[in-house]
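Example record

One chain of 262 residues, shown exactly as stored in the release files.
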Amino acid sequence: MNTKPNSPPRPQTERAHLIGPIVLVAALLATLFTAVQPGSLTVGDLSQQFRAMLTPRPAGGDALAATAAPLRIGIVAGHYGNDSGAVCEDDNGQVTLTEQEMNFKIAALVKDGLEALGFQVDLLQEFDTRLSGYNGVTLVSIHNDSCEYINEQATGFKVAAATDTRDVSRAARLTACLIDRYQRVTKMTFHAGSITADMTQYHTFSEIAPNTIAAIIETGFLNRDRDFLTQNTDRAAEGIVQGILCFINNENVEPTPTPNMP
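Predicted structure tokens for this chain:
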């Protein structure tokens, strides 16, 4: 993704069941850190937020009760209606794929999948006028990373929420759900090490209604992950759909081993 211009403490025995592989802990903590202001966490806060990411809540619980927003979902197709985003060219300089094109294909499939389940879904452009005060149960913006070869480790997906989100617990849970489900469906690695300010300070986060819990996902690198994204677009979309359902339905987030990222 290019820079955008324009309930009470649980018993100790139960906590033990929340501790997954060390590498997963590192990845989830990295995700949590993108959702809070630097220096704002205490040890107690960290424990509470980590439990919130992994622990399902009762049906009809605070994930939905905390907001009066309708059961409406916003899906932003990154760069759509504004610019091309990353541009992939062949050896002759001919454009073969743009990030906007890939983002839109995935976003459209996500919309179709959620609508088939009965949700009201808005497919939004990058700088859509409807984003101002957008009120929904959640909003997810879909992007992809560079077409350029960076190194052999430049593969996998990334998820982040706003650094200044009002509801850290729910934002952390949304990102945890997206990470877990997208990884399970696509078998891609979570590339936590390259989450940037362009993601955590994504412009849409400050435009939508405060109670709309939002996240941004980069579904892969258009260089090393291009074959997967273009040939298995439906799987990329399904991973996002499942992540959103995990959040809305208060589903459990099972610990999933995540390889160490450089």
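Notes: Confidence is low (pLDDT under 50) at residues 3-53, 57-70, 256-262.
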